[in-house]
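REQUEST FORM: STRUCTURE PREDICTION
Request ID: SP-0412
Submitted by: Lab K.M.
Chain count: 1
Length (residues): 113
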Amino acid sequence: MDKIEKLNTQLYEKMKAEQDKYRDWLLSLPPAEILNHTYEYTMREDILMCMEEAELSPKQAKALLKSPCPLADCYEVFNKREDGHMDNIRDSVESMANRIIREDFRKTQRESR
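STATUS: Completed
RESULT:
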């Protein structure tokens, strides 16, 4: 295992342990409170999944390894970003509606022949 791979693996393992601890904490909460944290949990899982194959430079990996909670730090940066998440959801809903409209139109045309 080369130096870059070793640092990235170290970082992944640290973040995984952090997520395991977060999960254990969540499971100690009442169900209604757990629901309040589902978005954060899911996004942290996505960050962790991304880190499984991340190839950060040694400098980047070392910088994140300095943090006591690199996963929480990365989640905070992610969460503050303006992104098109709601736009993507809206587009998906509209695309699905349009698909059904097209299918209904085609079906009506076939039946009218």
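NOTES: The two ends are 67 Å apart (CA to CA).
Reviewed by: T.R.
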